[in-house]
From TrEMBL:
Reported function: Small subunit of the glutamine-dependent carbamoyl phosphate synthetase (CPSase). CPSase catalyzes the formation of carbamoyl phosphate from the ammonia moiety of glutamine, carbonate, and phosphate donated by ATP, constituting the first step of 2 biosynthetic pathways, one leading to arginine and/or urea and the other to pyrimidine nucleotides. The small subunit (glutamine amidotransferase) binds and cleaves glutamine to supply the large subunit with the substrate ammonia.
Gene source species: Litorivita pollutaquae
Molecular function GO terms recorded: ATP binding; carbamoyl-phosphate synthase (glutamine-hydrolyzing) activity; glutaminase activity
Subunit structure of this chain's protein: Composed of two chains; the small (or glutamine) chain promotes the hydrolysis of glutamine to ammonia, which is used by the large (or ammonia) chain to synthesize carbamoyl phosphate. Tetramer of heterodimers (alpha,beta)4.
Keyword field: Amino-acid biosynthesis, Arginine biosynthesis, ATP-binding, Glutamine amidotransferase, Ligase, Nucleotide-binding, Pyrimidine biosynthesis
Enzyme nomenclature, EC number: 6.3.5.5
Sequence ranges assigned to domain Carbamoyl-phosphate synthase small subunit N-terminal in this UniProt record: 9-139
Pathway: Pyrimidine metabolism; UMP biosynthesis via de novo pathway; (S)-dihydroorotate from bicarbonate: step 1/3; Amino-acid biosynthesis; L-arginine biosynthesis; carbamoyl phosphate from bicarbonate: step 1/1
Protein's name in the database: Carbamoyl phosphate synthase small chain
Lineage: Bacteria, Pseudomonadati, Pseudomonadota, Alphaproteobacteria, Rhodobacterales
Region called CPSase, residue ranges: 1-189
Active site positions, chain numbering: C276, H360, E362
Protein encoded by which gene: carA
């Protein structure tokens, strides 16, 4: 039997070091540049693509079957995809799920996001692990015409994420009130139906499920834009302040967020809780430092140890920067560590209800081990009232 000719490549991924990957384009056509990371989660591709923390990044999925359950608006973490593009091993099949309202490719196309299928994602992931998250250009042309030299030049021209504040691009334009609860509950957990605690949540690129978890732990949540000042936060007379996840370099976003956090810490005794970028900026405000990681942590099976209890949580992670635990000043305790590489995953003030974690306790990577962190925030606010 005559062999079928392999289809002409319609997408090209160019790394700044000149390495090229050809494959099949889906989603939008055109060209985009970004930093490339890999995510090891087996499910949740839609939540990943719509997590604002992924702004400025293209995601390589190490799990080969991506897209085969389509997309549904219920799974959006924000209204639009925020990750710059996606790289997958197999082209998505026709969506097979009773929840699907659209094919992944159509959804990406309607939202201007480029994807490439048919890539040796194992080889690509090994390259990322060895040399660090590369700068890349991704092109999708149905005619298959690629100027590879200009693509490599575009990858080299990408400025990277260090020193870049992306929170201002993804934060809300205006404050709003949030009261929707989460849909899935940890075993035996009863949702708090009557909100008891007034929380101001600062949106540096907040995922919706974080806001749902706060509401479910009994918080009446007012969301404020990233550039909110301490005066604007305190004008709401909150019982607690929450610092959200978000994209980019914490040191850059911290230029306006850190003074705001410091002012609240210096002028009030309010409980404060931060997640991911919020964790990193709280650490900066307390005098610690953050560093860029080689290839970051992105996945849904990251073991994290709670140093207070010794318990291990299986967590979702998505970060390319980390708090340098060596830089934590006196009075700031390390509460959680990654069991993959020992990097910092949580801090708290020794004598105040101010704490934060690097992982994503709102995500449900199968287990829901980390939800207690929201209940702890509510308990701190209850103890104060
Ligand atoms: N998920 C997040 O909040 C990410 C924080 C930060 N942008 C990082 O990459 O480390």
């Amino acid at each position: 039997m005559a062999q079928q000719p392999s289809p002409r490549p319609t997408a090209c991924l160019a790394l700044a070091d000149g390495t090229l990957f050809f494959g099949h384009g889906f989603g939008a056509t055109g060209e985009t540049t970004a930093e490339l990371c890999f995510n090891t989660a087996m499910t949740g591709y839609q939540e990943i693509m719509t997590d604002p923390s992924y702004a400025g990044q293209i995601v390589t999925f190490t799990f080969p079957h991506i897209g085969n359950t389509g997309v549904t608006p219920e799974d959006d973490e924000t209204a639009d995809p925020v990750a710059a593009g996606m790289v997958v091993k197999w082209d998505p099949t026709v969506a097979s799920s009773w929840r699907a309202t659209q094919e992944l490719g159509d959804w990406l196309a309607a939202r201007g996001r480029i994807a490439i299928g048919g890539v040796d994602t194992r080889r690509l992931t090994r390259a990322i692990r060895q040399s660090g998250a590369p700068h890349v250009a991704l092109s999708h042309d149905p005619e298959g015409n690629f100027d590879v030299e200009s693509l490599v030049a575009a990858a080299r021209g990408f400025a990277g994420l260090e020193g870049v504040d992306l929170a201002k691009d993804v934060t809300c334009a205006q404050s709003y009130h949030w009261n929707e609860m989460r849909w899935a509950w940890p075993d035996g957990y009863l949702p708090q139906t009557a909100p008891k605690h007034k929380v101001v949540a600062i949106d540096y690129g907040a995922k919706r499920n974080i806001l749902r978890c706060l509401a479910s732990a009994g918080c009446d949540v007012t969301v404020l834009p990233a550039t909110a000042t301490a005066e604007e936060v305190l004008a709401h007379d909150p019982d607690g302040v929450f610092l959200s996840n978000g994209p980019g370099d914490p040191a850059a976003t911290g230029k306006y967020a850190v003074p705001m956090i410091q002012k609240i810490l210096n002028t009030t005794d309010l409980p404060m809780f931060g997640i991911c970028l919020g964790h990193q900026m709280l650490a900066l405000a307390l005098g610690a430092q953050t560093i860029k990681m080689n290839h970051g942590h992105h996945g849904a099976n990251h073991p994290v140890q709670d140093k207070d209890t010794g318990k291990v949580e299986i967590t979702s992670m998505n970060h390319g920067f980390a708090v340098d635990s060596q830089s934590l000043p006196e009075g700031i305790l390390e509460t959680h560590v990654s069991l993959f590489d020992g990097s910092n995953c949580g801090i708290r003030m020794k004598d105040r209800p101010v704490y934060s974690v690097q992982h994503h306790p709102e995500a449900s990577p199968g287990p829901q081990d980390s939800f207690y962190l929201f209940e702890r925030f509510a308990a701190h606010m209850a103890a104060r009232s």
